[in-house]
Structure formats: C-alpha cells, structure tokens
Design goal:
single chain; 497 residues; alpha/beta; five-stranded mixed β-sheet; elongated
C-alpha cells in the first residue's frame, strides 16, 4: 500500500536530546509555524554512556524502539520537509556512528549531529519566536541532558553563543549517586558547574543583557515547581530555588521526592538541573529568569523554513568565511562555475541537489587555507572546514565540505579513507578539474568540445584536440591527473575530440 504524501506546507523535526527525544510536526502559514502534532519520549540517552564513552546496549535498544515509532509518524514526508538533529550525547559517544546508521534506517531520514554553538544558535531562534518582538538583549539559557547552551541575542539574531558540558542527566548521575540528596552533594555540584561557567562569564555579565530567559525541560520544570508551591511567582528566582533545595534535602533521597508540579519523568534529573541553574544565577548575576516555550526543535523548524524560503544560514556563513579568510572572490566564482558545470555533466539526470550545494560551497571556500600557508593549503582549508564553528552546518555537512576541499589537489591516495559514495567522488573530480582549468587565475577560455561522463571504471573527460595543443601546460597536468586517479583504483580517461 502506498503511503499518502504529506502536504508540502507541513514540516517536521526530531530533536535527539541527551534526556528526551522529541518529534514535532507543524504547518507553515506565511512566516509562522503552527503545531499539528508532537511526540515525546524520555529515553535518557546520556544516562546510557559508559565510563569510556560508549552507549550501552540497553540504551541503544530503547532509543531504536523510539526511532521506529517516530519513523512511522514521518512516513509520507519528503526529505525537504524533515530535519533531525542529535546533540551532546551523540557528539561524544564513540559508537554513535553505528547507532546513527541503525536509527536512520528506522526513521527514513538522515540524522545531523550539530556542534554545541550551532545547537545554541538554533535554541535562540526557537526561543525568540516564542517571545515578544522587543529589542532588548536577552540571555537565553538551555540546560539539556548533557550540555548547557548560553546565548546573548536580540530579536531573532544570536550574537554570542557558547556550549558547556553541564547537563541535568550527567550532573545527576555524577553528584547524586543512588539518588542521595545531601548538602555536600549539592555544594560539590554547584561548585563544579560554577567552575565551568566561570570560563565564559566575562562575555555574559549583567551589563551585556537586560532579560534572562530559560528554555527546555529543566527551566520549565523549575518554573512550575516554584510557582505551584508558592516559592516564587511565574519566574525562576534564586530564593525560590534555595527553598526547593531545602525541601529536597529534607527528603534525603530522590525516591522520597513527590512535589506538586514535578512530573515523574523529571524526578531523576531534578537535582543536577537545579544545581546547574543555581550556579548560573550565582556566577552570571541573574536575579530572575522568565521561561520561553520555544526551544531547539522550534529553532530547527524555523531554520528549515528559512532554507526553503532562500534565507539559508549556511549561505551567510560561507559569505562570512570568504571575508574572514580574504578569499579571492573572482577566482572562487570562476572555480564555482566550472565545478558546477562538471558536476552537472558527470551526474547527468541524477543530480544530487544536496551534494551540488556542498560542492558549490566547497568551491567558494577551497582556498581559505592560504591565510595559513601556501604549502599544502588544501589541508589547512579542509582542517578549518572540519573543525570551525559554522552556523547552519551540521557536522556531517562540514565533514563532506572538508573532504571535497581536501581532494581538490595533491595526492589522491589520501582520499580513499574519506570518500564512500559515488556522488562524493563526482564532487571531488568536478572540483579538481575546475581548479586545474582555472589555474592561471584569469578568465577561462574553454575547449569547444568539453564533456565529463562516468565510465565503467571511473570518468571520461572529452577535450578538443586543438585546445590541448594550444595549452601544453594543462595537457601535461591532465597526464599527471590520470596517474593520480589510477592510484585510487579509478580510471580517468582523457579523450581527444
């Protein structure tokens, strides 16, 4: 039976957090998103990390069972309508790649592991869309299961972003073993969190923002507990949290904790989240904090909507990198145009639009390593693209960009360990040939006959014979290029027409 297609004005996102997995489906009306459906499962992925940073089997099976249920809900969506992101635990788990492969098969869509600062940017977008459109600078804090994000922004733009390894799951497991609630445990947890926050405190002083905002489960849970128990009114306050801590100490153990406003699934992670929030208030000078309903999943949806409306943050990041690394704009445009032409030739009717986008970004950024050194600059370029904070890009996208750029010149032997699929090989050959043709850094006079096609054992490049005679340096480079591809088991055939 064929699954009905989901209307194109409906988008979905999945947030694979360290504590909770969330799926949200929303309908687009002009520039706003209206929720249609939501699913939430407390998987506690972060609690399944062993001491040597491996996800244990029970946690993996619990997470995959959730993925199967989410996958059923996502049937009928097209790839352009769905974005799935993984956060801290999937960033640090050594066996996350194996888990992701199995999870993607159940979901039917790729999972993007996002960097901490990218997570922070998306959180701010989600929070900003649920707050009044005022102009004050906001401090937005999101305590997750494995990390806490700190953002200063105004309206819909994040200005300062940081991510620290402070999580309600990790801190509850680390400092409140067997659920024991003692003065010493709380003091140790708060001190440890303050030590981490101290590293960024100089950028988040009270004179840098006018309104403190909390997002996600810990902030919402603290707000509800404090309000319902009359320990504060509507906002989170330090005095209210101290009363909550005193009540937890009176209960002595989490098994005895049953508070008004505290949901059952939040009990195991409450002490860690509370300790981190107290540390934030004390270290950053916060007196009170309001709570926004929007969070990461909302930010991912608005970012996905922006991509569809040609307001792609990745384009802005590429432009920023071009300026930061003083890229020769004319040369990058020449190489980009040639790379696109070769890729469309070799891909034929099966153009992978996502890969084409990555190739074009790679072409525009392939020379950023020149700011470090000319020698082996392609390696410097690839390193920057692999490791820099690039707003809008997932770790997988950055790795793909870095691979294409790494392969645009030099010994091809290094590429075998990085390139796994045909579309990526096509991108690599397209950029290599584009750079070769544009070597003299002037307007390129192309051969009258020029074509690039896949062959049974590699690629076939057709070039006018007369043009090759007039360009002996390029003809010599082609001969060397044939040898390079042979080294990795491909045949690059140069056909004179």
């Amino acid at each position: 039976m064929t699954t009905p297609l989901t209307p194109p004005d409906v988008l979905a996102t999945v947030d694979l957090g360290s504590n909770t997995f969330r799926l949200q489906v929303s309908r687009v009306v002009e520039d706003q998103l209206y929720p249609l459906d939501a699913m939430k499962e407390t998987v506690r992925l972060g609690a399944g990390l062993t001491a040597d940073k491996y996800l244990d089997d029970d946690t993996i099976e619990r997470a995959l069972a959730c993925m199967a249920r989410f996958g059923e809900r996502l049937r009928g969506f097209s790839p352009a309508q769905v974005r799935i992101v993984g956060t801290n635990t999937l960033r640090v788990a050594k066996n996350s790649a194996d888990f992701i492969t199995r999870a993607e098969a159940l979901l039917g869509f790729p999972i993007e592991i996002i960097a901490g600062r990218e997570e922070a940017r998306l959180i701010y977008i989600g929070a900003a869309h649920s707050l009044p459109a005022t102009k004050e600078r906001r401090l937005v804090v999101d305590i997750g299961g494995g990390s806490t994000e700190f953002i200063i922004g105004s309206q819909y733009k994040a200005h300062v972003t940081e991510s620290l390894p402070l999580g309600c799951v990790s801190y509850s497991l680390r400092f409140f073993k067997e659920g024991k609630l003692t003065k010493t445990n709380f003091a140790d947890a708060i001190l440890a969190a303050r030590n981490e926050i101290q590293r960024i405190a100089h950028d988040y002083t009270p004179d840098e923002w006018q309104l403190a905002v909390g997002t996600s489960g810990t902030a919402r849970s603290l707000r509800d507990i404090l309000e319902i128990n009359d320990w504060s009114s509507s906002d989170i306050t330090l005095d209210g949290m101290e009363k909550l801590r005193a009540e937890l100490l009176r209960r002595e153990n989490l098994k005895n904790v049953n508070l008004n406003g505290l949901k059952t699934d939040r009990v195991p992670v409450l002490p860690g989240g509370l300790a981190i929030m107290i540390a934030i208030f004390e270290e950053l000078g916060v007196s009170k904090m309001t709570v926004a309903e929007g969070a990461l999943r909302d930010g991912v949806l608005y970012d996905l909507l922006g991509r569809q409306r040609e307001k792609d943050m990745r384009e802005s990041t590429v432009l920023l990198f071009k300026r930061r690394y003083h890229v020769d704009a004319q040369q990058s445009e020449r190489v980009q145009g040639l790379a696109e032409r070769f890729y469309r030739m070799v891909a034929g009717e099966d153009v992978d639009q996502d890969m084409l986008k990555r190739l074009l970004w790679a072409a525009r950024l392939h020379e950023i390593g020149l700011t470090i050194a000319h020698t082996a600059y392609h390696k410097h370029s690839a390193y920057i693209l692999q490791n820099a904070d690039m707003p809008g890009f997932s770790k997988r996208e950055q790795a793909s960009l870095a691979t294409i750029v790494l392969g645009h010149r030099g010994d091809m032997g290094k590429m075998v360990q990085y390139v796994q699929d045909a579309a990526l090989w096509q991108a690599v050959v397209s950029l290599r040939l584009a750079v070769l043709f544009a070597r003299n850094r002037r307007a390129v006079v192309l051969p009258e006959k020029l074509d690039l096609k896949p062959s049974s054992s590699g690629f076939a490049l057709t070039v006018s014979a007369g043009w090759l005679k007039q360009n002996p340096l390029t003809a010599s480079a082609f001969r060397q290029e044939v040898g390079q591809w042979k080294n990795v088991g491909f045949q690059l055939e140069v056909v004179q027409a």
